[in-house]
């Protein structure tokens, strides 16, 4: 009986580039004679995976350094939320039951989009008071829609630099329109993207979201719990949501976490409260 185990369970770089096995063989002199750095098929081989990791780590690192970006506040949250203005427009134009239900959900969650936009603006206003780049905190997100767009938008509209760490997905995620030119990055590997979320992060602000937001949140908490990174504020916006979908008290009761782990988390309701946690933590002027 033949095995049902898959050869691999990921979208490989060859899948992403639509390269066929024959294109990786380098059988002709035309192929083998190419410069290694100019040979897409060679760079897509399994053996060059480590090089691709290095390049994805190095490119944003160099460009962020050239832009003087030392400190970031990383904002996570749902890709599905829209502004309250957009949600109201959806309601006004809804005719069918599915459209009405979608508009009602949008109205329920739009406060988070508007809050993230406000938070981005608050950070930008603070940065405008600072003369030295080493004292500034820049908004960084996953670069896509929803909460990411909102936080980038608030900072961008206030005239500040804003960063997007985008990711290639089967349903392509495009950069939102509120990213500073030269600070919009694209990743193939989630692991390297997550490293850039963390490398300059001085706080994490997490709005309600789905699997991706949970993944990013718990990775940060695990890194802190295991002392792989210095403690900094982890701020969850919307206490009812977070305590409704994650029973932190039960985790404490079962002994799978300790109170010291819960002390890493700050629950807030507004953009101003989120900024106050960061301001007080770092004693910012």
From TrEMBL:
Taxonomic placement: Bacteria, Pseudomonadati, Pseudomonadota, Betaproteobacteria, Burkholderiales
Catalytic activity as recorded in UniProt: AMP + H2O = D-ribose 5-phosphate + adenine
Organism field: Polynucleobacter aenigmaticus
E.C. no: 3.2.2.4
Pfam families tied to this protein: Lysine_decarbox
GO MF term list: AMP nucleosidase activity
The protein's name: AMP nucleosidase
Any single Gene Ontology cellular-component annotation: cytosol
Class of enzymatic activity (EC top level): hydrolase
